[in-house]
Structure formats: C-alpha cells, structure tokens
C-alpha cells in the first residue's frame, strides 16, 4: 500500500502529543524528518484528511483534544522484523529470488539448471562461446537479474534493492515498483546481451534504474521527494564510472556488466520523469 503525506511541519513543531492523539484516534502513521521538515505519513487519503482536521483542532485549543492528548496510553509494540520485511511484498519477493539466484551457481556445479535462467542459450563452438537469442523464451529477458556470482555481489545488490526499492514501494505502491523492475530488468538485460555474448547476471541494472527513478522524481516533484540521503547518487554514479574505466578488473574482481548499469540508469530516469509528469497527485 502506498503511503500518503498527511502533514508537513517545521522541525520546531513538537508533535509528541499530536502523535499520541493520532494513535488514540486509531490513525496509523509515522513521522519522519525529510528535507528539513517533519512529515506525517499515513496509509490513505482518508487518514490524511483526519490528520489535517485533528491538527487544526489541536492548534485551535480544542479542550477535549488537549485532555485526550495528555492521557497515558499503551505504547504500540515495535514491528517485528518479518512484518517489516513483508510490508514491501514485491521487494521481499525480489530479494528471495535473488538469494536463490545467488545459491544456484554454487549448488549447480555442472551448470545443469543455470543455463535455463541465462539470457542466451549458451554453447561452445571451436572454443568460442556462442549463444542463441531467446526466441519464444521471454522469461530469459528477466531472469538474469536474479543470478548473482559471489557473496559481495548479492550482499550489495540486496542492500540497495531493499533501500531504494523499498523506498518506492512504501511511497507509491507494489504495482509501481513491480512495473519499474520488469521494464528496467528487461531493458538493461537486452542492452547487455546486444553488447556481447556472455553469461551475465545481477540486480545492478535494476538498482541503477531505481536510483534514476528516485533522482529525477525528486527533481520534478520536490514536495513529494523520496528521502534519499545526500551524496548517495553521486557515490553510485562515481562507482559506475570507475567500473566503466575498468577499475574492478584492476582489483581482480572481474568484468562488470556496464551496459546493463548504464541502460538501467537511463531507463530509470525516463520512467521517473514520465511518472512525475503523468502522476495525478498534485505537485
């Protein structure tokens, strides 16, 4: 479920009693500091209207609300980890599939099953790696995103998928983040496959797509900006440039699917711009 902004207030505003009032009024919410403001996030437009109305009454000094707000309440229990994990079901499923995709190269030593998930149907002719374009096997344009080779590969991709993908799913819903995943995964995998015949995989193209989506959305919709930490985009773009320059090969890590990364970033920027311009929610 996508979250909705209920209120934006300056950092100087004390929202402790107001938050207490919202819980007593059965309005689930969370308060976050974003871009120098306190933002009250709720689950629906109906709750957002309740938040605005209750805050206006509290500011007006409604005696009933003031008395209610200072009454003791039972502190809501902290959300257990698995509930938080499945609060973003699409991202959770992608993480599980990525973990399975990381285990497959380790368990499938004879490469009996892994070739079914690669983009190309690979084979060797006269010592040269060749591959057939996946005609009639559309799953192959998506499944390379789940394949991971090495611990660091899956760890870093999982962390960024949880952070960036979860950010989008919590704000804009499961359908939006799933659509971004499918389009960016397919586009970046096709672009990488056109650049060379090889066994490639990973969620990195999607990660850069999510980054591009968030960055351009924040530029075009600053009032509804995602809470992307300062410097994250710069660091990720610098890393992308280092990979293109062959830095990972100098480190002995191996080659990187740079075409997938760059195309994923471009697709994310395009999708983010389209979403920001076409979304019906007011600026």
UniProtKB/TrEMBL annotation:
Compartments where located: Membrane
Transmembrane segments: 85-107, 138-162, 174-191, 197-216, 228-248, 260-278
GO biological process, one term: proteolysis
Cellular component per GO, a single term: membrane
One GO molecular-function entry: serine-type endopeptidase activity
Main subcellular location of this protein, as a coarse class: membrane
Matches recorded under Gene3D superfamilies: 3.30.70.2080, Rhomboid-like (1.20.1540.10)
Xref: InterPro entries: NRho, NRho_sf, Peptidase_S54_rhomboid_dom, Rhomboid-like_sf
Domain Rhomboid protease N-terminal as annotated: residue spans: 6-67
Domain Peptidase S54 rhomboid: 136-274
Coiled coil: none
Membrane topology listed for this record: Multi-pass membrane protein
Pfam family, one: Rhomboid
Keywords of this entry: Cell inner membrane, Cell membrane, Hydrolase, Membrane, Protease, Transmembrane, Transmembrane helix
PANTHER family the record matches: RHOMBOID PROTEASE GLPG, RHOMBOID-RELATED PROTEIN
Protein name: Rhomboid family intramembrane serine protease
Biological source species: Zhongshania marina
Native organism taxonomy: Bacteria, Pseudomonadati, Pseudomonadota, Gammaproteobacteria, Cellvibrionales
């Amino acid at each position: 479920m996508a979250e909705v902004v209920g209120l934006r207030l300056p950092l100087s505003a004390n929202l402790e009693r107001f938050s207490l009032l919202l819980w007593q009024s059965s309005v689930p919410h969370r308060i976050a500091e974003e871009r120098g403001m306190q933002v009250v996030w709720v689950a629906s437009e109906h709750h957002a209207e309740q938040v605005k109305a209750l805050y206006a009454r509290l500011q007006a000094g409604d005696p009933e609300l003031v008395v209610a707000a200072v009454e003791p309440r039972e502190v809501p229990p902290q959300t257990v980890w698995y509930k938080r994990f499945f609060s973003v079901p699409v991202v959770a499923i992608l993480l599980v599939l990525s973990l399975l995709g990381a285990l497959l190269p380790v368990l499938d030593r004879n490469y009996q099953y892994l070739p079914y998930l690669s983009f190309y149907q690979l084979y060797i002719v006269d010592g040269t790696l060749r591959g057939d374009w996946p005609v009639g096997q559309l799953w192959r344009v998506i499944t390379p995103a789940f394949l991971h080779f090495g611990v660091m590969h899956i760890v870093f991709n999982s962390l960024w998928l949880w952070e960036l993908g979860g950010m989008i799913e919590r704000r804009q819903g499961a359908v939006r983040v799933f659509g971004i995943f499918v389009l960016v995964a397919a586009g970046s995998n096709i672009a990488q496959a056109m650049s060379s015949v090889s066994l490639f995989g990973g969620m990195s193209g999607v990660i850069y797509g999510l980054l591009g989506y968030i960055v351009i959305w924040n530029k075009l919709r600053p009032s509804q900006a995602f809470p992307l930490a300062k410097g994250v985009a710069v660091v990720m773009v610098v890393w992308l440039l280092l990979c293109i320059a062959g830095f990972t090969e100098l480190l002995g890590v191996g080659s990187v699917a740079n075409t997938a990364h760059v195309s994923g970033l471009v697709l994310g920027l395009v999708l983010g711009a389209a979403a920001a311009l076409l979304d019906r929610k007011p600026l």
